Amino acid sequence: MGDSLVLYRTLMTLLCQHLRQSKGPHLGQLKTLAWCIVGLLLVGKVSLPQWASEIVSPAQQQASRERRLYRWLGNAKVVPVRLYGPLICEALRRWGGQRLYLALDTTTLWNRFTVIYLSVIYRGRAVPLAWRVIRSQSTSVRFQVYQPVLLRAAKLLPVGAKIILLGDRGFADIALMRQARDLGWSFRLRLKSNFWVYRGNRASKVGRLCPKRGEARFYHHVFITKRWFGPVYLALAWCDLDGQTDPWYVVSDEPTDLTTFDEYGYRFDTEELFLDEKSANFQLEASELDHPMKLSRLALVLAITTLALTSWGTAATALQLRRTLDGHWLRGLSYLRIGWNFVRRCLALRRPIPTWLNLDSAEDPEPAFPSLRQALQPGLKFRVCFNP
User: Fold this and answer.
1) I need a labelling partner for 160 at 20 to 30 A (CA). Which of 32, 109, 235, 350 fits?
2) Domain that holds residue 140
């Protein structure tokens, strides 16, 4: 049996056990979705003609197999949230009572489309939770545009999990903070320097409170903007390193300290997701699709692949197989890449590939370091000053 057929049967088992409920998607939708993932795993990038070559079916003509994939991407009955929701819910099922960080961010495609991602931060990477593709040339989007992403994601999160929302300056919006509060989420959002801060009868822009280099300041029970939103808590810091010219102004709904900067820093793990999708692994922009919903369905393929590979890489590491898949002494590959190597190894040795999804809520047993030098490098230090 060829690799493509082995992978296809594994993926169909995985998809059917979570999606073939009483009102589940049509079986034909799942079959084509499985072949898309097979193509991505074997080809290693987004290329529908090459994916079509991996399909095993009665269709003899290459053009027929390609049309099947393009029709699936254009099928209005293929609703990404209905297909992805049960899968990410299963992967996060054991996170009740745990702290779960969500990062809100955007990326652009060909300066014509913007993808809004809400992702789960997981062991140095981000796994998509919900997304939306719109026609736009800017990464800045209004709250009304990305609000549906938040509401959709809220239905997928495990009951009892402590949710912390992370966002850059482009999402420093009172409406977002209110929405997070209404959903029962905490937040760590970076402010722009022109935000007004009210401390008792004193008012100033947050940029005027900027600490000196190497110093961190914390303001508790303050209000922000002229609408007096709050009380909230601020964490301000200016890193004393060459090239760090931009201070951090982070607002939180909970008391702040130095760990607030660590928490906000998890947001940068979404950059690795964008790198994986656009250049390092999947090469999303090679698709050249011309419609937001087609891109959203393609994002579904990438999201399921990312989720599955990360889950399998986590499982392989838990089984003490990481050194057979990663040539580094300390973990140097992402769990996604370890999972991909695990799949290839299973295919080469004709071993079964897992049909479960699970993002382990335990602490990362082997944090990744690009080099031993970085692993031994001390963390940042600040002089700390608390203010009322």
Assistant:
1) 235
2) 83-270
